[in-house]
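--- STAGE predict ---
source: upstream dedup step, 1 unique chain passed
mode: sequence only
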Amino acid sequence: MDSEIQQSVSKAASYIESFGHEITKVPLDILQKFNSLEISKIIYTAESNSILKILCQIKYIYYHNQLKKD
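--- STAGE serialize ---
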């Protein structure tokens, strides 16, 4: 894992921890399906928007991935 990806992942982890109970509204199995690029998109959203928009972004990425699989 290169350092840029590692930074994204650890940054994502700290964001998720900082929101505590709110982030748990998103099922853990959905969060675990993200790759590092998607985590980076979530972090970008997190830095410029509210928790609600982060959750919408997570759901968008998840459903978009589901559509690609079908």
